[in-house]
Amino acid sequence: MTDLTAVIHDLVSLFDRLRLPYAIMGGIAVRAHGLPRPTFDVDFVLAVPRERFADLFAAIEAAGYSVPDHYRGGWVDSVGGMPLFKVRLFLEGRGIDADVFLMENDFQREVMSRRILEEVEGKPVQLITAEDLILFKLLAGRPRDLLDVKDVFFMQGQLEESYMRRWAGPLGVTEQLEQALAERA
């Protein structure tokens, strides 16, 4: 079992035990929907009310992970306008990060309603769909993310374009989506 696999198994088991709906996204989802590539962290979207943070963080720390003090105090980061917190597992002198995006907007609620059950790293887990992965990657917009979008289009073939177009406007990625759709042809 790799270190990253251990983090996936640990956190998925913890979320399931606490009955917190989740979906894996990021590089792990790229491995499932696109061309496999190295990734060194795991990204989740998680349905957790902020008033449950104390219980969640206590359970995460009890599992051997560190939670920075500012998150325990209620502060969250934001990427693409979506709030998140980070946790880290230290193994053999190096840290493995998990970014946990909070399900707090309509797009993320729909992402959770569309998630699919897939086997990842030997464990059945909830995973975002290929369409939602593309939208998240366009929102992040880094060069690696744009390459991931091309890989997902290449591997998936036909995708639900009307769904992606419906969310591209509210997410502010219409131009990026149209460019990605044009480039795949």
What does the model show?
The protein is 50% helix and 24% strand. With 185 residues, it is of the alpha+beta class. The chain has one domain: Beta Polymerase, domain 2 (2-Layer Sandwich), CATH 3.30.460.40. The strands form two sheets. Strands 1, 2, 3, 4, 5 and 6 form a six-stranded mixed beta sheet that branches. Strand 4 (77-79) and strand 5 (82-91) form a beta hairpin. The longest helix is centred in the first third of the chain and has 15 residues, at 3-17. It is globular, with a radius of gyration of 16 Å.
Whole-number mean pLDDT:
92
At CATH level 2, the architecture is 2-Layer Sandwich
Number of helices: 9
Low-confidence stretches: none
The total tally of domains equals 1
CATH class: Alpha Beta
